[in-house]
Specification:
With about 150 residues, the protein is of the alpha+beta class. It folds into two domains: about 1-30; about 40-150, Ribosomal protein S3 C-terminal domain (2-Layer Sandwich), CATH 3.30.1140. About 45% of the residues lie in helices and about 30% in strands. It is built from four helices and six strands; from the N terminus they run H-H-E-E-H-H-E-E-E-E. The protein has helices at about 1-25, 40-45, 65-80, 85-100; strands at about 50-55, 60-65, 105-110, 115, 125-135, 140-150. A four-stranded antiparallel sheet has the order 4-3-6-5. A two-stranded antiparallel sheet has the order 1-2. Strand 3 and strand 4 (about 115) form a beta hairpin. Helix 3 (about 65-80) packs antiparallel against helix 4. InterPro entries: DUF7284. Pfam families: DUF7284.
């Protein structure tokens, strides 16, 4: 009789262990994480206000939304004018990106020139991006926000 009880207990333990193992495998997260939502990142970063000082003796001040400043910087860089303004906008945008604590890069392109702020994503990262057209001085610039997963 004790042998029959032992077999039932052994079978019950086997079923319990197999069930626990299956549950553990089902709850382990996968290795493919998606990058943060680029639309949400773009809304947060591009709508943020930034201020930069530039020019001889830092006598000029520009303040506005990151999207507008980045677009103006791209146009200025493409036209080869006001490199102090371009550097100032890059620095101000980097400050905004530092506050997000995330993996976000902002690129603004006009003509054949791109102004960049933030870290570049690793080559093996899964990258998502969203772009916006911004009107600047009778032309347009494309402002792109890129996000990636670790």
């Amino acid at each position: 009789m004790s042998r029959a009880v032992s077999t039932v207990v052994d079978a019950s333990m086997a079923v319990l262990l197999v069930s626990a193992a299956a549950l553990a495998l089902a709850t382990v997260p996968g290795g493919t994480s998606q990058p943060p939502d680029p639309d949400a990142a773009a809304r947060t970063v591009l709508a943020s206000t930034a201020t930069t000082t530039y020019g001889p003796g830092d006598g000029s001040v520009a303040s506005g939304r990151v999207a507008t400043l980045a677009a103006h910087a791209a146009v200025a860089a493409d036209r080869g004018t006001d490199s102090g303004f371009v550097r100032g906008v890059e620095t101000a945008t980097e400050d905004v990106l530092a506050e997000t604590g995330g993996r976000i890069e902002v690129l603004a392109s006009a003509g054949g020139t791109t102004v960049r702020a933030g870290p570049r994503p690793p080559a093996d990262a899964s990258v998502a991006s969203v772009s916006h057209e911004v009107g600047v001085r009778n032309t347009t610039a494309t402002v792109t926000v890129r996000t990636w997963s670790p």
